[in-house]
Amino acid sequence: MVFIVYNLNSFNISFKQALLSFVYAWRVDTVMACYILVIPTLLLSLNFLYPNKVTHYIIKSLVMIFTLINAMIMIGDIGIYKEWNTKINYKALTYLKDVDEVLRTSTNGLLISGAVLFLLMLVLSYYLYQKIVPKNINVKKNYILPVPFFLLAGGIVFLGLRGTGITPIDQSDAYFSENDFANTAAVNSTFNLARSVESNIKIGDKNPYQFFSKEELNKKISALYEVKKDTTFSILKTSKPNIVYIILEGFSADLIAADGGYDNITPTLDSIMHNGYNFTNVVSPGLRSHVGMISIFSGFPALPKVNVATQRDKFTQLPNFVKDIKANGYETGYIFGGDLKHGKVLDYIFNCHFDHLIKGEDFSDEIPTGKLGVADEYLFERKIQEIDKMKPPFMMASFTLSTHSPFDYPMEDVFNFGGGYQQYINSGHYTDKSLKEFFKVAATKPWYKNTLFVITADHSHPTPNQWDGFVANKSRIPLVFFGEVIKEEYRGVQNPKYASQLDISSTVLHQLGLDAKKYQWSKNLFNPNTKGFGFYVYKDGYGLVSEKENVFYNLETKKVIYQPEGAFHDKNKEDNIKALLQALYDEYLKL
User: Fold this and answer.
1) What is the largest CA-CA distance in the chain?
2) Does 538 score more than 90 pLDDT?
3) How far is CA 576 from CA 211, 299, 484, 558, 580, in A?
4) pTM of whole model > 0.85?
5) How far apart, in Å, are the Cα atoms of 420 and each of 261, 415, 462, 473?
6) What confidence tier does 102 reach under pLDDT thresholds 50, 70, 90?
């Protein structure tokens, strides 16, 4: 409440949204409360075995310490939110090394009001503790009660730590609105800081990958991304087409014959690739959905050990494709048949500010759902309906889910090979069938002829090929541009240039005639002078793949692995990986 009231003059929030921020805050608040209750629960259990007065004083002291910490964090939120548009985080803590600077950059009003609020919180908390908690907890020694008490109280605390859901809780579980301020208000401040520290503590505020001087680093990155001449060619008949993104969940290029994969699994995608402009050697930088979304829409790579996609204070500083085309007159939408908290996608997608955001809860209850949400055929049906309501030019993105475990697709298995991957293979076939129906209906719509379809995946997935994790083939995904809006001479092209998800934003923006300079890690694939390469993360390592070889640098062993094994050991390729790591971490720390 204090956070909302203090910021009312600077940020818009309705009375209803303010109330809802308390309602939706309960799950994350519960988790934080249960973390605090872990030690008191253990102490109370032991108190049955060894009754003593000390236990009461220890618990009281712990409560007051936690109260002190919470109050400090809440006051910190008030102090930095207007400046940073984020609650207190790891980055803010690093500035506390220079207390003098913090005091000098804070107004007297803020310092005084913060001190007063801090004291009020402590006094009120102490008063409530004295009123609610018994002063003397008289317990007789008992060897039986500790077990049921611990099982009951510990069980409740454990469930609370999980947030009462299937997956562990995260900040995005408090999000309920497209109003950033309302969502931020709903997030528990202490939990938010703990997550931020957890994500950054191993790295700190210094780049752990120092291989080159600043001058050497700039030269190597400039050489890697150097484009001697801009000879971009347009594959489109118009510079302002409708744009439809189809993002396939965990879809390996191994499922697609046109990309060198298995035959007959995805005949629809095969046909699309033989009639569109297809890139046959594309890798995903990361292994998770939230990383994929940032790669696609912000052109920012995955990194070992840290994750930009789960840190709002960082990804809000990145360029955003959706915002850029909205500024150029596009109506935008995003549709997903499940819970956007799946894969930690929600926070970033909210930040994109799509005009229309359709989630699993927005589908009719009459539509059959699996464990994760609506099957792909129903997603594509709804996507057609939503596009029909949009005014050209529009951009509509969808994210499928049927190729994610538990693979509860509404179809009998067609293929009986693949061993443990049989369900995954059949789920790919089901999604392909759903795509066939989607395009069959879409082709009858008036907007179809002027629409560019961009089909890719959020990341790859293991297949019966059982690629080693450090090999680029493990990360291969589809990327094809399709539609009648593409000029006839560019249909059916199979381009072997090595590329990445990261390159989608720059490539599409160039086709629209828009500036893409701020997407510094994204390459324009329709400029023949752009160098062909892609890079990716696997565990504690970084890989770089290009036409001649695949180089992987293991950060723990400091060893370089070449594929194929007999490939020429090019020191420049090793240096490129190290330069990318150093430059990307520099960028990460600046965000």
Assistant:
1) 88
2) no
3) 11, 19, 39, 15, 6
4) no
5) 18, 12, 10, 19
6) low
